[in-house]
Amino acid sequence: MGSTRSGPMNFYMVSEQNNLGLVFEDLIGLAIESRPVCEPKAYKSIFKYASPTQHNVRQDINNLVSVSSVSSLKIEDSEVICLSKGGGFNCPPCHILEIDGFRILVDCPLDLSALAVFYPFQTNLYEIPNCKSSNSQTEQRLVSCERDRKRRRIEEPVEVDDLILAEPWYKTVANLHLWDLSSIDVVLITSFMGMMGLPFLTNNVRFSAKIYVTEATAQLGKLMMEDLVSMHMNVKQNYGPADSGLPQWMKWEALESLHLEVRNIVMGNDGAQLGGWQPLYSAANVKECMHKVQTLKYAEEACYNGALVIMAFSSGLDIGTCNWTISSSKSRIAYLSSSIFYSLHAMSFDYDSIRANDVVLFSDFSSMMVTDSNGGSCSSQSAMTIDTMDPCDENFSKATTDALADANESSDEMDKLAFICSYAVDSVGNGGSVLIPYGRVGIMLQLLELMFALLESSSLEVPVFIISSVAEEMLDFTNVVPEWLCKERQEKLYSGEALFGHTEQIKAKKLHLFPAIHSADLVKMWQEPCIVFTPHWSLRLGPVVHLLQRWCGDPNSLLVLEHGTDAELALLPFKPMAMKVLQCSFLSGIMMQKLQPLLDFLQPNVVLVAGQARIESWRTYIEILPESLDSSQSHMKLHWGSIDPNLLEKALQKKGIDGSRITNSGVNDGIHVFHIANPSSALIEIHAMYSIISSADETLSSLLVEAVSSVLEGI
Asked: Could you tell me whether strands 672-678 and 682-686 are parallel, antiparallel, or unpaired per DSSP bridges?
């Protein structure tokens, strides 16, 4: 009792499910102090080597424990499967965790960026390029246009008539449709965008999982889904009732005629994503879905089946977004979603909640390749202070959190918002209008505050509209949730102020809310120039389509898009574009340079990062290595292939290891077992698709891994 352990932290890559089953063995050993433990124990070391011919591989968490840490960690019967690496804020990653026999799905988003392959329905539909008028029904006419389209050479860019002319379908997480939904026990949602695909699950009679989501995320997610349904219905009524079965554009003949870029979005490089497309759910499906959701407050415990304790903690990204901790009798796992350390509107990142976990799973690296003006790093003084401090020092936690919640980071975000508002005010000053398709609730609220402040200081009086079927309900909700907001916003409540500035602007009749572009009151009040906030950021649904058609030829008007949208493809139907386009990026996750200081603070035993099993992904691991790492300690190897028992027997002999093959009838066909007797007891099991090494001796474990690695192909 009372002893401590000092050992390396370990990083491992979890490949996407549809990739080859390649596992990084002993990928990186980090010379970082791990957290103290009361009673050091000896645990077995397990590694899995998967054949390159195996697809849909499930990577066991305990199969990813490195030899150097086998004496301090044991995670039994656990797996992590990366279904989707995600695409930033609007499409968070999706994982399946298997813990103590329970299967947990984390997030169920829609890839709404894929809507760009569809042509937006227009009132002047009969003027679509390369399509001739017809008296037949709309869908039949569009299919005819598809068949008449000539195949383009691969090297030619996408043109407007390469887009799909049909009622949009929606792209769900690849491979999720292949799972038996009855086998999923729990669903955890990290953000409102992470629940956009949830009705597809709850509408399935085989789905019976418990769904956990924070109260704020549940409400915002409900509004977002209702708005999506409303926008889709406006499009659907122009196409009429859809035929049962697959639409024409999903039939093989039509798929083959698609432009390569469009086809890759629809099918993926290997065609696996085609099965993820579905027609959108209904408003009734959304209502039914919300009845099956259990809401939680931050730090509120939810006990599932008496075996798992699940808790949500603020991630700082937006209102209600969270990280999750899952505790069982054997381990404690933290699921770290897209997070930011200091928020200008939402409750700040909760550090202590995910500290000292056995495993930390980093789910989203979409922001890792983006650097801010300061390189995304902590200040040099702060970094130097942290480097010279002992992690056990009581001041270490405060110094680390202060450095991570860098004021420069929030200042840069404010500068971006101010720049957008300044550009917008200049545009309306020149007689142009401003169109801002929004996706992030927090960004929209902050833009509204800054926009009105700048308009007032510029003595400009122009109307500001929010056009959305849920605009009024959404703004009302954001002003009654102080417990989900940052301290600065909460202090406004105590001083009698509104949490956000839009309340005063609505009362002053400077901000106008309308449910639809064709609202009678909006038509009466409409005047230009104006500033409009409206969905949808894909530029395929909602009022944005009509307004973009109206202003795309005005060189004084401005369109604001968030970085991550394929602007070239999204704007294709609206070309030629004289309208100015401003594309900005906002912080949506942990910057690469801040990851290593965060790990110093969290001190997990094992870190899992999701990514593709390929050479390019190694850059991620190189970037997050501590500066003090001795290069001689870095041991990167990628192994694959089948293990030849005869070669392994020779490799063991070369290392002076006394082992014998067990060939009794108790061993299944295709499984080879080596019993190691000297220098200490151990066991090696060779299966067709993986191998297991079991040993209580850390030194022997390392030798056995070296022996196994030597008979595999690798780089």
From this structure: antiparallel
Task: Please tell me whether residue 15 adopts helix, strand or coil conformation.
Answer: coil
What's the structural domain count of the chain? Answer: 3
Residue 80, pLDDT above cutoff 60: yes
Domain-located, residue 370: no
* Structure tokens given for 226: 């209702």
**Per-residue pLDDT, 614:** 37
* 120 prior amide bond cis, ω within 30: no
Q: Where are the beta strands (DSSP E) in 387-469?
A: 434-437, 464-467
536 preceded by cis ω (within 30°)? yes
CA distance linking residue 198 with residue 92, whole number of Å: 13
What are the residues facing 662 on neighbouring strands? 673
pLDDT of residue 404: 66
Examine the domain organization and report whether 130 and 277 are in the same domain: yes
Taking CA atoms, 92 is separated from 106, 149, 194, 347, 404, in Å, by 10, 35, 6, 19, 23
Supply the range of the domain harboring residue 673.
645-714
Residue 302 domain-assigned (yes or no): no
- Whether the upstream peptide bond of residue 92 has omega within 30° of 0, thus cis, is no
Cα separations in angstroms, 215 against 344, 346, 457, 620: 20, 14, 37, 34
Q: Are residues 552 and 481 in the same domain?
A: yes
Distance CA 320, CA 484 (A): 6
80 or 618, which is more confident: 80
What is residue 398's predicted lDDT score, i.e. its pLDDT?
55
pLDDT tens, position by position, 186-207: 999 999 999 999 999 999 999 9
